[in-house]
Amino acid sequence: DRRDETRLDPPRPLWVDRARGRFSSWYEVFPRSWGKVPGLLTFRGNPTRSWYGQGVPQNPRVLWTYPKSGGMCSNSTDGSGTSTWCGDGWTGQPTVVERDGRIWVSFGGYDASMHWIDGVTGENIVTPFRTGDLVKGSMSTDPDGYPLSYKGSRDNYFRILATDRGDTPVELWKLSAYDGVQQVWNDDWDGAGLVIDDYLFEGGENSWFYIVKLNRGYGADGKVTVNPQVVFKTPGWDQELWNTISDHQFSIEASVAISGNTVYFSNSSGLVQGWDISGLKEGRTPTRVFRFWTGDDTDATITIDKQGMLYVGSEFERHNDRSKQVGQMMKLDPSKPDNPLVWSLKDQSGGKSGVWATPALGDGVVYFATNGGRLLAADQMTGAVLWEKNLGSQTWQSPVVVDRTLIEGDCEGNLNAYDVSDPRIDPPLKWTVKLNGCIEATPAVWKGRIYVATRGGQLYAIGDQ
Fold this sequence. Notes:
The protein is an all-beta fold. The protein has a single domain (39-463), classed as YVTN repeat-like/Quinoprotein amine dehydrogenase (Methylamine Dehydrogenase, Chain H), CATH 2.130.10.10. The strands form 11 sheets. A 5-stranded antiparallel beta sheet has the order 1-6-7-8-9, with no helix packed on it.
């Protein structure tokens, strides 16, 4: 049965530095906003990937689209040949930041460009930055107020861009997927970079994980500067995985997550790793402290709760024994590395099934969306399924929970909001806004507006009249 669940051990207590009354870590593991500037600054809002914005509209409609007419489209080539891609897709969450009296909404598009637009009017704040191929995944905005954006492209480069040079963004630095590494599988950069204390954490589809010291500052002319240095890199695979998975699809497509002193990431062969970064600032090399194998492609970003538990969504494509055993929706306890699986749920229908969307947490409940259109809520402690809805095929948008409202789009262009005031009962529908095209991208919610793009070609601003 797809809903089989396994209950193992209860979660561990949160580690706290009692002497100082605060966490001794890179990031306090609370699901809250993050950064020195107001906004939704990276995919899923914070380093634990567990905050989704604020201020859900009550009776929304489409306020404007970007662009006003036509669509964001370009041609791109992959293993299936050359085709036209439009709009934005997985994971595609815009960032929102309040700066200089304006609301900046930034995102990458399938027109091979990065965009920065006014969240009120939908007009360009700076001109789009053209790359050599699709800009997939989600951008990140500097959390410390530097006028910097971080994003990679399918043209094999990860870039840092400055937006304080008038109306034209300027590339300050780029990293090639081929620079100084054994590139394996691909050269995209889907994951949203994470910036903490002047360090950038990022995984690439070249199957490598990077830590970059940014050395941010300002020049004599008052313009922002960076002097990035790659201080650590490690392959997203190990010898055991190399020997087990013959196709060597080891790309890191998920965004990295950080809890306490550990950075976590997963890859396209299902290897979940945790690396201790407690000594990074003192020059000590990170060491691996956690390993778990899901058995299959794990592109959904790891979500971490306030106890440091990991919520992992995995695909079901290889149909191997391991993925059949551990399931596609799981909770892991990294303090028990020899037996971390707390509970799991299965989604193992024919063909491609399982989870592409990143899970969401709220009020003791974890929300999952599956490739086959299942939207379900499970108890965080036990994994018991509380309710389930069927939204049709291909639900790749990551669930968004803000103000006790669950927002989930489908591939028919319906952006649905459900009342989860009591998340343990089947939630009633609050409203639906009809958009043009499949909703793969994750919405950004900010102070009464929702920003989301579809595969139809446009980004939408949705809000009350």
